[in-house]
Design goal:
Layout (H helix, E strand, L loop, with lengths): L4 E3 L1 H5 L2 H6 L10 E8 L9 E7 L4 E9 L2 E11 L2 E11 L2 E9 L5 E10 L3 E6 L5 E6 L4 E6 L11 E4 L15 E6 L5 E6 L4 E8 L4 E11 L6 E6 L5 E6 L4 E8 L4 E9 L10 E3 L3 E2 L5 E8 L3 E7 L5 E8 L5 E6 L5 E6 L4 E7 L6 E9 L3 E6 L1
Antiparallel strand pairs: 1-8, 2-3, 2-30, 3-4, 5-6, 6-7, 7-8, 9-10, 10-11, 11-12, 13-14, 14-15, 15-16, 17-18, 18-19, 19-20, 21-23, 22-23, 23-24, 24-25, 26-27, 27-28, 28-29
């Protein structure tokens, strides 16, 4: 295994620190909570991580601002152990150097860098925190690699513990010439890490030792999806028995039964994300999110159609379409349900904004609002 390198606070923030220190967020009051927004801008002076105050009564963001510069800060995660709130970000230290950074979260939302771990030939497309909040597993789309790191009690990240280079290809030459690790998901019992590999039509399964962040290939090592499906992201149902894979290339959602003892997936059903006759060749299915009640699932289409899709989840796990909500923007890269369940925030990457939708807590139906907030190449919404 190749060890990563640690970047100092000084080299990471450099001259940007003085600029960021000039403006401070006020501490959140009882009606407000913090939300962080990632940006996949890949310019050397690109935005990075933004923070804002979320008002659950009005469905609005305030004091939106940059709190840490970073190249292509695409996906975020957070933890709260012993009252210490931490933020973790996958980004790029340089064009071909991946980075994971750990920050301490102040009551105002300001971030203090703890440390950054870098690794060559690794673009941080996605990451997941294990349920004990002791380790992180990250995926690289471009190189088809995965890695894991431990999180110390004070928030420090270790050098990579486990690293794997995926191999193989798929039938769609334009997108599947090589492996493309696109999504990381931790099993409900915290015993496995699952990696959606768009390039090989596989969902890789690794045994996870969260205390050491060690990954070991399961036996069998992967679930084989439909050729040309392009598995993108995976979400487990709250019952721990079902998983749903959104497949980018053939625009489908796959219902899978999860065998927790063996660490295996079995396909049960496939639901198209496009209407009958839809332009699959020019479409890319996107995210998959399940509400905390386990009754509603959200997904999206990008390209041929720009919409958000709402499904109900039946007692057998099967999906029933509720509505197709026009995005009124471009590229729903990621979305999240507000903590109170009453709103739905969407990172519209190509519209360079985060849009707020109202959400019916009972039916799951969403509706657009005038509330839109500028974030260049918006890519992630994280409530903390």
């Amino acid at each position: 295994m190749t060890k990563g390198h640690t970047m100092t606070r000084r080299s990471f923030l450099s001259t940007a620190a003085a600029t960021l220190a000039a403006t401070q967020l006020p501490a959140a009051d009882s009606t407000e909570s913090l939300v962080y927004l990632g940006s996949t801008d890949n310019k050397d002076n690109g935005p990075g991580i933004h923070a804002a105050l979320w008002n659950s009564h009005t469905g609005t963001l305030s004091n939106l601002r940059l709190v840490s510069p970073a190249i292509s800060a695409g996906f975020l995660a957070s933890s709260n152990i012993g009252g210490t709130r931490l933020l973790f970000a996958g980004h790029q230290a340089a064009p071909k150097v991946g980075a994971l950074s750990s920050f301490r979260i102040a009551p105002s939302g300001d971030l203090t860098l703890i440390n950054t771990v870098t690794t060559p030939d690794f673009d941080m497309v996605h990451l997941a925190l294990d349920h004990t909040q002791r380790c992180i597993v990250a995926a690289s789309y471009g190189s088809g690699k995965i890695l894991s790191v431990t999180i110390a009690p004070d928030g420090h990240l270790s050098a990579p513990v486990s690293q794997f280079q995926l191999s193989g290809s798929g039938p769609i030459a334009s997108r599947q010439k090589s492996p493309h690790a696109h999504g990381v998901c931790i099993s409900p019992d915290n015993r496995f890490a699952l990696i959606n590999d768009l390039g090989t039509d596989r969902i890789m399964v690794y045994k996870l030792d969260a205390s050491t962040a060690t990954l070991t290939p399961n036996d069998p090592p992967y679930f084989k999806a439909t050729p040309g499906a392009g598995p993108r992201h995976l979400a487990f149902h709250p019952n721990g028995k079902w998983a749903y894979s959104v497949n980018e290339l053939d625009s489908t959602l796959t219902l899978l039964h999860w065998n927790a003892s063996a660490g295996t997936l079995t396909q049960v059903a496939s639901t198209p994300t496009l209407p009958v006759g839809g332009d699959v060749a020019n479409n890319r299915a996107g995210e998959v999110v399940i509400d905390k009640t386990g009754r509603i699932l959200y997904s999206c289409n990008r390209g041929a159609v720009e919409d958000l899709i709402v499904y109900t989840i039946g007692s057998d796990g099967h999906l029933t379409l509720v509505e197709r909500q026009p995005l009124n923007g471009k590229e729903a890269r990621h979305f999240a349900i507000s903590p109170d369940g009453g709103f739905f925030l969407v990172a519209e990457q190509f519209s360079n904004q985060v849009a707020v939708f109202t959400r019916n807590r009972q039916t799951g139906v969403i509706a657009s609002t005038p509330n839109h907030y500028e974030v260049t190449n918006a890519s992630c919404v994280l409530f903390v």
